[in-house]
What we know:
single chain; Alpha-Beta Plaits
Amino acid sequence: MNASPALLLSLKSRTLLGLLMLGLALVLVLGTWHLRREMRGQAELAEGSQQLLPLLYAEPLSRALASKQVNVAQRLLETMVSRHELQSAELRGRDGLRLLSGMDALPGPDSPHSEFALRLPGEGDELGRVRVVAPELSVWGQLAKPSIQHWLLQLLALALALGLGAALLIDHLLLRPLRRMASDMERFDPSRPPSEFSWFDDGQPARAPAELRQINRAMARVHQSVDQQLQRKQREMRDLSAQVAQQARALHEAQTALDLKQRELAQLARHDTLTGLANRREFDDALRREFKRAQRQQSRLALAVLDLDHLKAYNELHGHAAGDEVLRRFARLLGERFKRDTDLVARLGGEEFGALLPGFDIGSAQNLLESLREEWRRLSLPHGASPVDEVVTVSIGLAAYSPTQPYLSPLALMQAADEALYIAKHAGRDRLSLAA
């Protein structure tokens, strides 16, 4: 198996890049040293040349100024600039004369410059002064010289040759063993049994270097340890999976029981446990909902409140169990008589029940409830404690919402039915009373 290309590319590229940077650093150091030497020599040469200028040009310029030969003085300045490679030469006479050859600029920080006075031999009066500025010495100016460029190219070629030789030597001494080691590392598989593991393709580790044999023994121990840990982890994972499955089943069973309890609680929250009818909370919600619909659609809605007469006295005489049975029988009768999907009957509390009849006006609801009252009376459940009748009877209060008889709120409609029930009870019970 071949070694990892990414690994080899990384090693080779880093080695070559390091050697290249070393060569460039060598070129930079030697080149900087050579340039500094050249610039120092140029500066010394310019300084020596400027020291000769007064000896060569001071007397001719003085005689030209003394004889008012301005053209001669200008030509001498130009000759000075061209012959000695100056940046500029400026002559200022004592009478305000100014002659310039070259660039009219102040000397730079690295520009050699000097001044000398103009006097005739044997006279002490100064006729003027000459300022000379040599070209500024710069690295780029030196690099532009062919001799410097040729020397730098030779130095760079030498550095590249040394770098290539060092790269070949490093490849032979370091990279080849690393490639073999990388190839062996790629064959390492912790999932294989330790007996199948070997660093060597020919199966003869005795021919390998001692260092590789030592690495082989160490990796065999590591492989065996990894194999043992892998088997232990696999057993732990199987045990953990079994525990997770068991916990999942228990959680599912608990969730199922919880859902059942929630449904039961929801049923209890909306229904009466004794009769199975809707409770007061469900009835009030339905009343608000149906009242808003009747208002919005300008339809009819009848509301009846029913109360079993003297049931407390019945309980005292026959016991609460008998009283509960009477409540259940009356609830069954309500459920049998109000079967529409929109009808709702509920136990409002104690012996009081409610019937919500959407779509009924007060007349049709009155007929239906009178029939219900008479049917309940025909059951002839003996009372024994009623001061007005021998059987258990029911009193009913009825109110109805309609476009011609609107109520302002569900509470107003409920109060009207309660008031009608109150009238029925005080009128002798066992009767139906209509809201005014």
